[in-house]
Amino acid sequence: MSTSAASVCVVGSVAFDSIETPSGSAADVLGGSCSYFAVAASFFAPVNMVAIVGSDFPQAERDFLDSRGINLDGLEVVDGRTFRWTGRYHEDMNVRDTLDLQLNVFADFSPQLPESYRDSELVFLANIQPGLQSRVLSQLRSLKLVGADTMDHWIDEDRDALLELLADVDLLSINDSEAAQLSGEANVVAAARSILEMGPDTLLIKRGEYGALQFSADDIFAVPAYPLEHVIDPTGAGDCFAGGLFGSLAAAGEVDRKSLRRAIVHGSVLASFAVEDFGLNRLKRLTREDVDARFRQFMALTDFHG
Amino acid sequence: MSTSAASVCVVGSVAFDSIETPSGSAADVLGGSCSYFAVAASFFAPVNMVAIVGSDFPQAERDFLDSRGINLDGLEVVDGRTFRWTGRYHEDMNVRDTLDLQLNVFADFSPQLPESYRDSELVFLANIQPGLQSRVLSQLRSLKLVGADTMDHWIDEDRDALLELLADVDLLSINDSEAAQLSGEANVVAAARSILEMGPDTLLIKRGEYGALQFSADDIFAVPAYPLEHVIDPTGAGDCFAGGLFGSLAAAGEVDRKSLRRAIVHGSVLASFAVEDFGLNRLKRLTREDVDARFRQFMALTDFHG
Fold it and tell me: Which residue of A has its CA nearest to B185?
C-alpha cells in the first residue's frame, strides 16, 4: 500500500440492538458489525460503508454516521424494517443469550458496491455469510489489504465457502473460541499455525478481557486488554477492534511490522472505549484526543523496555 | 533496598510429586512451592531455603539444589517421609484433581531460621499456612521486601490469620481466581483495588496462559504469557514466576518501577520454561543465556514503541 489517507471499505450488518447486561439495559441502540467497525475506523480514516437498512432507519443515525466521515453511498435502503437483535449477557459477560433475532431486510442482502467504492485498497469483510463476503471481494479492483471476521455459525454451517474466502484474505480477525473451532486445535499457537495455512498472512486472535495475539509466519505480537473496572456492554467490541486496526493501517499508508503493531493497539484502544457504555454511546462522545491519550496509557501499561 | 546481589530467603514446601497431564506423566519428581521458587530465583541471586524433608530425601537432589547456589542450612531433615502429592490435570490444564496427598513430615513443620538467614533483606513466603508464614517474618530483622503467596484453602479456612499476615506483606502474588475469592470482586481491577487496601503495596495477579497484571496504588503493568505450543506440566509455574521475580529484584538491588517491571518479565520467563517439562526437569537444563534470550523474545513479543 503506497497511498496515505486511504479509505477503508467495510461490509457487514447494521442493526438495532436491545441489550441487557449485569450493568443495565438499552433498547434499540444502533449496532451491527458494520456500524461498530465504521465508527471505530472513522477516528483514523475515511470509511465507505456497505450495508442494508429498512425504511425505518432514522435520519438522526444517518446524520451521526455522516458526521463521522462515513460515506453512505453504499448503504442500501429498502422497504421494511432494519435488522433487530435482542440479547442478554450473563454475570460472566463472555456468555450471552440471543433472546430474539429479526433479520428483516437483512435476509435479502446482496451487497452491491457503488462505483465510487470500487477502487478501495483496504476492505474489511465483517461477520456475514462467507458467500456474501466473497461477492464483495469480486467487485473490488485495486485491493491491497483484505480483512475478514467470521463466527461460529459459518465455521460450522458454511465451512466450504469460508475456506474458499480465506484463500483470498490477508488478515483474519476472530476470537479464541472461533480459532479453536476453525482449526480443531485447543492450543492457541497450534490453532494459529493451522489457520495461517488456510490463506491469511496475518491472524489476529481476540481474547476479550485478556487482550489479543497477532500471528504471522515469523512473528508474534501480544497486547493486553486495557484493564477496566466497569464494563457496561461488550457488544461490538471485536468489530471496534477491527475498525480501529484497519483505520489505523489506512492512515499509516503502509502495512509493515511497526504500523501493524500500532494498529493492533489502536484496535485495542477502540474496543476498550466501546465497552464503557451501551452500543455506540461511548464512541459517540469520543474524541481523537481521547484515543491518543489511551494509546499512551497502553504504552505505560506494557513498557518494560526503558 | 540498597545492597546489590542480596540473597532471597524463601519458606515453603518441598515435595515429591506424581503428575499426570494430557502430555504424559512423571512419578516422584522434586516439587513443592519452595523448590520451584528457589530454583527459579537461583538464576539471578543466592537463595536461602527454609523447608522440611524426610530422611528419604536423596543426596542427588541436595547436590542439585546446592549446585544452583541454594543455601540448605535451613532445610530441616527429620525422621520420616517427605511430603508427597499426586495429581491429574484435565484436558483444560487450568483444572486439576488431587488424587493423593501425604503431608508426612510437613505436617509438623515449624520453620526455624538459621542465624545466617536472619539478616536476609528479601523474603518470600510461599504457599503454606498463614500462621507459619507470620512465624518466619518474626525471625527476620533486616527486612526490606516481604513477598507472599497463598491459596484458596487458606482464604476460606484461615482468613483471619491471612489478613493479619497481609498487613505485613509488601508484594502479594496470587492467581486471578484467588484474587476474586479474597476480595469478593469478580472484576480484576476492583479485586486489586480491594486487596491493596489489605496491606500490600504491590499485587501481582497471575492469569496462567493469559499472562499477569501488576497493580500498585498509581500504576498498572500488564505482561502476556509467552505463547507456547506445547505445555507439558503447569505444576509450579506460579512459584517459578515468583522466584524469577524475587531473584531479579535481589539482583537489581533496588525496587523501583523499572526493576519491578523487569523482574515481572523475568518471572514470566521462568514460568514459561517451567511448564515445558515435568517438575523441575526443564529448569535443570536451563542456562542463564536461555533466560536472557527469552527475555529478549518477550521484548519482541510486546514492543510497539519503536
Answer: A229
pTM: predicted TM-score of the whole model, two decimal places? 0.95
Interchain contact, B261 vs A190, CB within 8 Å:
no
Query: Which member of B189, B258, B304 has the closest CB to residue A261?
Result: B304
- Mean pLDDT, residues A122-140: 96
Question: Tens of pLDDT along A154-204?
Answer: 999 999 999 999 999 999 999 999 999 999 999 999 999 999 999 999 999
Minimum-distance CB partner of A221 among B91, B207, B301: B301
Do B221 and A264 make contact, defined as CB atoms within 8 angstroms?
A: no
Average pLDDT, chain B: 95
From the CA of B192, how many Å to the nearest CA of chain A?
Answer: 10
Distance CA A269, CA A27 (A): 25
Nearest-10 crossing angle of helices A188-196, A176-183: 60
Of chain A, the end-to-end C-alpha distance in Å amounts to: 32
H helices of A112-173, in order, are 130-137, 152-157, 159-166
Q: Which chain B residues have a beta carbon less than 8 Å from that of A303?
A: 261, 305
pLDDT band, residue A3 (cuts 50/70/90): very low
Chain B residues with CB-CB distance to A23 below 8 A:
none
- Under the phi-then-psi rule, with left for phi > 0, alpha for psi from -120 to 50, and beta for the rest, what region is B29? beta
Please give the pLDDT value at position A5.
61
Whose cell is 463466527? That residue is A151
Distance from the A185 Cα atom to the nearest Cα atom in chain B, whole angstroms: 10
Nearest CB among B207, B261, B304 relative to A262 is that of B304
**Is residue A2 exposed (0-12), middle (13-18) or buried (19+ Cβ within 10 Å)?**
exposed
A21 CB neighbours in chain B (<8 A) are: none
Whether B60 has a pLDDT exceeding 90, the answer reads: yes
